[in-house]
Amino acid sequence: MAKKQIAVIGAGISGLGAIKCCLDEDLEPTCFERSDDIGGLWKFQKNPLEKMPSIYKSVTINTSKEMMCFSDFPIPEDFPNYMHNCKLMEYLRKYATHFSLLRYIRFKTTVRSVRKRPDFGVSGQWDVVVETDGKQESLVFDGILVCSGHHTDPHLPLKSFPGIKKFEGCYFHSREYKSPEDYTGKRIIVVGIGNSGVDIAVELGRVAKQVFLSTRRGSWILHRVWSNGYPMDSSFFTRFHSFLQKILTTAAVNKYLEKMLNSRFNHAHYGLQPQHR
């Protein structure tokens, strides 16, 4: 019996894992990647393509290597607990090479459309149109795995900032930020206290004249390093802590966590004390 043909869209972390899982299940995957390399979000590019994810040069993962690695391919011991994006790319290349995944990837190929076939109710098959070097090709697959990620469309709510069109300085989404050199000696406001906002504000603080970090409400700041120097996630997300959360009240758990986070620095002293627990 012929193997079922599976289309995998995207060759980032999810796409690579999808290819490997297809092979484990005796399926025949074909991965379509519109760039010229694997890695997706984690492939640093100074000038990213439109509708492509984009990171800044200094990005370091916020999940420890023990918690984020593929279960069947541990990250090398000499890699840092929290890897710079170039080390993560090195790991992904090792993974793809070890399991011979690259042979199943068609690079510089864009998926133009995915539609159910006229006889889908019987066959369960899909018509897929792809484009390579300006030439389109129609293919038939038994299944589709969409691994294109979601960090592609920047959210820039300019309507929320009256007068922005008259602003004489420059403004842009963090997707366009790459490195701090161009901002030496400038006054900057970073809007948003998510991971990217905090990262960029800290980095710019080393070169800019002044940096403001704007947030509509406070936030609990968790450090990558937890008690005794161990990674936060591998220390906290354990069966023992899961057991404690089941037997303790939510208020007790919140009180313990807030005390621990405030022991690093008092959030109230920096105007970061949230109203939410």
UniProtKB/TrEMBL annotation:
SUPFAM superfamilies: FAD/NAD(P)-binding domain. The keyword Cytoplasm does not apply. GO terms for biological process: lipid metabolic process. Gene3D superfamilies: FAD/NAD(P)-binding domain. Its cofactor is FAD. Its main location: endoplasmic reticulum. It is found in: Endoplasmic reticulum membrane; Microsome membrane. GO terms for cellular component: endoplasmic reticulum membrane. It catalyses: N,N-dimethylaniline + NADPH + O2 + H(+) = N,N-dimethylaniline N-oxide + NADP(+) + H2O; octan-3-one + NADPH + O2 + H(+) = ethyl hexanoate + NADP(+) + H2O; heptan-4-one + NADPH + O2 + H(+) = propyl butanoate + NADP(+) + H2O; sulcatone + NADPH + O2 + H(+) = 4-methylpent-3-en-1-yl acetate + NADP(+) + H2O. InterPro entries: FAD/NAD-bd_sf, Flavin_mOase, Flavin_mOase-like, Flavin_mOase_5, FMO-like. It holds the Pfam family FMO-like. It is a single-pass membrane protein. Broad spectrum monooxygenase that catalyzes the oxygenation of a wide variety of nitrogen- and sulfur-containing compounds including xenobiotics. Catalyzes the S-oxygenation of hypotaurine to produce taurine, an organic osmolyte involved in cell volume regulation as well as a variety of cytoprotective and developmental processes. Its EC number is 1.-.-.-. Coiled coil: none annotated. The keyword Nucleus does not apply. It is an enzyme of class 1 (oxidoreductase). It comes from Cricetulus griseus (Chinese hamster). Belongs to the FMO family. This is Flavin-containing monooxygenase. GO terms for molecular function: flavin adenine dinucleotide binding; N,N-dimethylaniline monooxygenase activity; NAD(P)H oxidase H2O2-forming activity; NADP binding; trimethylamine monooxygenase activity. PANTHER family: DIMETHYLANILINE MONOOXYGENASE (PTHR23023). Keywords: Endoplasmic reticulum, FAD, Flavoprotein, Lipid metabolism, Membrane, Methylation, Microsome, Monooxygenase, NADP, Oxidoreductase, Phosphoprotein, Transmembrane, Transmembrane helix.
